[in-house]
Amino acid sequence: MIDTMTLTSQVLITSQLENTLLALESLRQDEHIIEILSPTLAANLQSKVEGEMMDSHIHRIVTDKETFTVSDAKVVIEKAYMASETQTIIVLVATEFSPLIQNKLLKVIEEPPKNKTFILITQSKATILDTIRSRLPIRIRDEVKEEEALGLVLAQLSLATVYEFIQTHKRTDGKKMKIIVEAIAKEAIHSQKFNLDEKTLTLFAQTIKALDMGSPPTFVLNTLLLKLLARKKR
């Protein structure tokens, strides 16, 4: 089911980052919008609206690198604390946000300054830390495939079930493996059968990143499950 798009504090999960941002822009009435995004995303947006005049109430900031850095987080915080009597929507767009960046932004997201609203747009729910999830509602757009049945009972995770699951997914490609990793992350959190400290939660983000970088899907899955097995409550 698709959530109605609104200019409220949230995390939007979508495979269509640029289209989702444009949809948000179309909702603007009296608000100011500050967008922070990578050079590639900015170029893609430019190609989609080539020849159109950008709304003067929308300010787009392009990062130096493809991934958000600490310097970019400082810019976000600086913009958040600029006094404004007009409602300002701060939109951060990235394929993923590292745990370091999420932690840097946690305080300002938890206690946003007056008239400031935060929206994060990203591709993977599994990379969003619990601390952010507890403060911003997560909404999944229609472009993202629904989670498939995992076929693995994490509460009964063992070396034997890990081996069997790995054999089942020997030929699974990286794209589908990302969906599986997200399902594993969701079930691991909800099962309460694992000692999921921040370091372990970071593991899910690192797994998605490894798949994006082309690491062998089966190897990545095996590493994730073995590390998760080590964190299983006895």
Architecture overview:
With 234 residues, this protein is an alpha/beta fold. The protein folds into 2 domains: 10-140, Rossmann fold (3-Layer(aba) Sandwich), CATH 3.40.50; 154-230, no CATH class. It is built from 9 helices and 6 strands. It has helices at residues 17-25, 39-48, 70-80, 99-110, 130-133, 159-168, 174-191, 198-212, 217-230; strands spanning 10-13, 32-37, 58-62, 88-93, 116-122, 138-140. It has a 6-stranded parallel β-sheet, sandwiched between helices. The chain is elongated. The two termini are 37 Å apart.
Strand content: 5-15%
Major sheet: order of its strands?
3-2-4-5-1-6
The ordered string of helix (H) and strand (E) elements is EHEHEHEHEHEHHHH
Mean pLDDT: 88
How much is the radius of gyration in Å? 19 Å
Strand count, sense and barrel status of the largest sheet are: 6 strands, parallel
> What is the CATH third-level topology name of the largest domain?
Rossmann fold
Based on secondary structure, the structural category is alpha/beta
User: What is the approximate shape?
Assistant: elongated
Count, helices = 9
- CATH class division of the largest domain: Alpha Beta
First and last CA, distance: 37 Å
The domain tally reads: 2
Instruction: Tell me how many strands there are.
Output: 6
List segments where confidence is low: pLDDT < 50 over at least 5 consecutive residues: 143-148
Q: Based on the coordinates given, report the CATH architecture of the largest domain.
A: 3-Layer(aba) Sandwich
How is this fold's topology laid out?
Layout: E1 10-13, H1 17-25, E2 32-37, H2 39-48, E3 58-62, H3 70-80, E4 88-93, H4 99-110, E5 116-122, H5 130-133, E6 138-140, H6 159-168, H7 174-191, H8 198-212, H9 217-230
Parallel strand pairs: 1-5, 1-6, 2-3, 2-4, 4-5
Helix pairs in contact: 1-2, 3-4, 6-9, 7-8, 8-9
